Amino acid sequence: MPNRNLYLPLLVFLIICGVLSGCVNLGKGTERLPRLYVLTVIDSGGATLPIDRKDNLSIGLGPLAFPEYLNRPQIVTRASGNELRVAPFANWAEPLKQNVLRVMLENIATLAATDAVYRYPWRAGHPPLVQLQMEIVQFDAARNGEAILTLRWEWVDQTGNAMMPRKHSVLRQPVQGAGDDAVVAAMNRLIYDYSRLAVEALATIL
Predict the structure, then answer these.
(1) CA dihedral defined by 196, 199, 205, 206, rounded to 10 degrees?
(2) Which of 6, 22, 161, 197 has its Cβ near the most Cβ atoms within 10 Å?
(3) Taking the CB of residue 76, how many other CB atoms lie within 10 A of it?
C-alpha cells in the first residue's frame, strides 16, 4: 500500500500554488477601475473685472504650449524636485490640455463679462481683437504639499504684436489632503487664479 506521507508535500505544494494564483489573478470581476477627473469652472459669485467694453472686443485663447509629461491620461504628482509619479487609479476624463483651455475659456468669459471668447485655432481672416498666448512649464502637485502652475504668457493684438512685456508667473495652492480629489481641487483653483490674473492684466492695457 503506498505511503500517503509521500504525497503530502506534493499536496501542500499544489495548495500553495493555487492560493498564490488566486491572489495574483484577480479576474475581470474584481478588477479595479480608475476614477475619472476633470477640471471645472469655479463660481466667481458674479464677480467681474473692470474692462473697457469696446464694441468689437473679442478674446482669443492660444496657442498653448503644453509640457509632454502631462500628455497622458493618468494624473501626475510630484514626489520630489525631479521625481514624478503616475497615479495608478486616477485618470483625466479628457486630454488635460483641452480641459485646461475649456475651463480657462469659461473663467475668462465670466470674469471679462463677455461671450466673445474663442479658442485657438480660429477662423482664417477673423482673428480676435486680443489674444492670450501661453506656455505652461509646470502643472502638477505634491500630495499633502502644494500644487504649482508655472507659465510664460502675454497678451498680443490681432496682428501678433505684444501688448505687454512677456510675463513669467508661478502660482501656488495648498493641497488639502493626500487623495486624488485634493490634488485635482488644488489644480482647479490654480486655473481660476491664473484666469483672473490674465484678465486683470488685460484690464490695464485696453
Answers:
(1) -150
(2) 197
(3) 19
Please choose, from the candidates 109, 116, 114, 108, the residue with its C-alpha nearest in 3D space to the C-alpha of residue 194: 108
Secondary structure letter of residue 93 according to DSSP: S
Kindly provide the b/e burial profile for residues 137-170, where b requires at least 16 CB atoms within 10 angstroms of the residue's own CB: eebbbbbebebbbbbebbbbeeeeeeeeeeeebe
pLDDT in tens, 116-171: 999 999 988 889 999 999 999 999 999 889 999 999 999 999 999 999 999 999 99
Q: What torsion do the CA atoms of 102, 104, 110, 112 make, to the nearest 10 degrees?
A: -130
pLDDT of amino acid 25: 46
User: What's the grid cell of residue 52?
Assistant: 473697457
